Amino acid sequence: MVCKKARKLFSAVLWGSTALLFGGVPLPACAQSQQVAGATANLTVQNTFTFTEVTVADVGISAVFTDVGGPDISTITLAPDGTLTTSAPNNSQVIIVDSSGTTAGQFSVSNAAPNTPLTINFFNVVDLTCAACGGGNPAILLGGFTHDAGGAPMTDGAGDMTFNYGFTLTTVPGPPQYLDGLYSGSFDISVSY
């Protein structure tokens, strides 16, 4: 603004002079000041975190009987808090023999982004079979996975989270009857941002 006023004032003075004077005197230049500084942009990428199995899920010891002649099925449900419930209609039975070794499964997440939502998925499920029982022995179906991390699992302020999980085991109807032995299955658990 000061520079504009100076130019106008100088122009007014020149109008009162001769044309030769106007042509020989330059208009005053406006001074400008500029400073330049470099800047830096940083981003720390932390896509990886530690995912560890803390406790293996174990349903204990049960007597399991299939409905050899019909469609009935039984279930054993292991809740994330470690409790067991059974359902055994009509001709199919599940009887808990010893639940002292029953434990829900547990996983922990650490070194993740703090206060960040996570997604938990169960997949690649392989039903329980008894390797020592022979090829004709029926499987026990594995499914109905649940966890106690809530509907929107989230890490804490340190980037950690621990959750328990459970599942449901289901008998299959029809012969042959289940034989005694250790039945094992498998599945994958993923945790992702």
Features:
193 residues, 2 helices
Give the helices and strands, then pairings.
Elements: H1 2-15, H2 19-24, E1 50-55, E2 61-65, E3 75-78, E4 84-87, E5 93-98, E6 105-110, E7 119-130, E8 141-147, E9 161-170, E10 183-192
Antiparallel strand pairs: 1-6, 2-5, 3-4, 3-9, 6-9, 7-10, 8-9
What does this entry show, briefly?
This protein is mainly β and 193 residues long.
Protein model, in words:
There is one protein chain. By secondary structure, this protein is mainly β. The protein has one domain. Helix content is 10%, strand content 36%. It is built from two helices and ten strands, in the order H-H-E-E-E-E-E-E-E-E-E-E. The protein has helices spanning 2-15, 19-24; strands spanning 50-55, 61-65, 75-78, 84-87, 93-98, 105-110, 119-130, 141-147, 161-170, 183-192. The strands form three sheets. Strands 1, 3, 4, 6, 8 and 9 form a six-stranded antiparallel sheet that branches. A hairpin with a 5-residue loop joins strand 3 (75-78) and strand 4 (84-87). It is rod-shaped, with a radius of gyration of 38 Å. Residues 9-22 have low confidence and may be disordered.
